[in-house]
């Protein structure tokens, strides 16, 4: 599904930006790896053991060897502009920031974060968590303040970032204790909702993931992990 993740990323960033959230400025481009990609001298890579090694042209060729190619030999990539300002790390969906004197409302009580659950359910943006946010310190007209961004929309619209979205996600959390209790009470004979779904197939399309409407219930939608703001969403927040 070579178009799946990049299509979800671009559509997601533009859609959530249109809804009023700050998002990165992303584009889909096609590049020739040999001519369109350059390696800055001194660039190092860290492996799963924490060891570093230099990024070489040979290493890059080896990693891109299995990436699907367009008819002209180029590869499809997502290009993202750097977020303006000074990066200050992610923001949490609870509490306040100690480095922001304007941050006086607990994040779990902010309507823009509670109401985000509605938009996330609509687009199946299940990977909504602090890791996929960014805070930037900006200065405009002599004033300094903090701007909050949502990032990483590759897991929307039935995309699972690198493959089709897992069928159970959006129906319950990765570790859903309520689901565990229901399974135990039924001696594991109950059929979970996601197992009843007949996912539509789009054999000629490389950009549509697991996406259906029959079993979709916005009020029952779940992201990957419990979100302090999402679980407190009220009807007024959603409205």
Secondary structure layout:
Layout: H1 4-18, E1 26-31, H2 33-36, E2 44-46, E3 52-54, H3 57-64, E4 75-80, E5 86-87, H4 111-114, H5 116-123, E6 133-140, E7 143-150, H6 177-185, H7 235-238
Antiparallel strand pairs: 1-4, 2-3, 5-6, 6-7
- Ranges where pLDDT stays below 50 over 5 or more residues in a row are none
Class from helix and strand fractions: alpha+beta
What is the terminal separation in angstroms?
Answer: 36 Å
Average residue-wise pLDDT? 91
Order of helices and strands: HEHEEHEEHHEEHH
Walk across the major sheet and give the strand order.
Answer: 5-6-7
- Summarize the main sheet: 3 strands, antiparallel
- Based on CA atoms alone, the radius of gyration comes out at 21 Å
Task: Determine the fraction of residues in helical runs and give it as a percent range.
Answer: 10-25%
Query: What's the overall geometry?
Result: globular
Number of domains: 1
Secondary structure tally, helices: 7
């Amino acid at each position: 599904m070579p178009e799946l993740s990049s299509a979800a990323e671009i559509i997601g960033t533009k859609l959530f930006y249109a809804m009023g959230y700050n998002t990165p400025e992303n584009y889909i481009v096609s590049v020739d790896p040999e001519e369109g990609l350059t390696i800055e001298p001194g660039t190092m890579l860290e492996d799963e053991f924490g060891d570093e090694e230099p990024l070489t042209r040979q290493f890059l060729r080896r990693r891109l060897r299995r990436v699907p190619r367009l008819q002209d030999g180029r590869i499809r990539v997502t290009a993202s502009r750097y977020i303006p300002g000074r990066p200050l790390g992610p923001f949490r969906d609870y509490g306040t920031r100690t480095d922001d004197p304007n941050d006086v409302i607990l994040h779990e009580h902010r309507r823009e974060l509670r109401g985000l659950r509605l938009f996330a359910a609509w687009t199946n943006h299940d990977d909504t968590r602090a890791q996929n946010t960014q805070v930037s310190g900006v200065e405009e007209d002599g004033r300094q303040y903090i701007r909050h961004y949502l990032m990483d929309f590759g897991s929307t619209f039935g995309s699972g970032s690198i493959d089709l979205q897992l069928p159970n996600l959006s129906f319950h959390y990765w570790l859903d204790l309520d689901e565990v209790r229901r399974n135990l009470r039924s001696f594991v004979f109950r059929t979970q909702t996601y197992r009843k779904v007949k996912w539509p197939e789009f054999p000629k399309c490389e950009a549509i993931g697991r996406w259906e409407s029959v079993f979709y219930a916005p009020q029952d939608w779940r992201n990957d992990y419990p979100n302090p703001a999402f679980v407190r969403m009220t009807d007024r927040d959603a409205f």
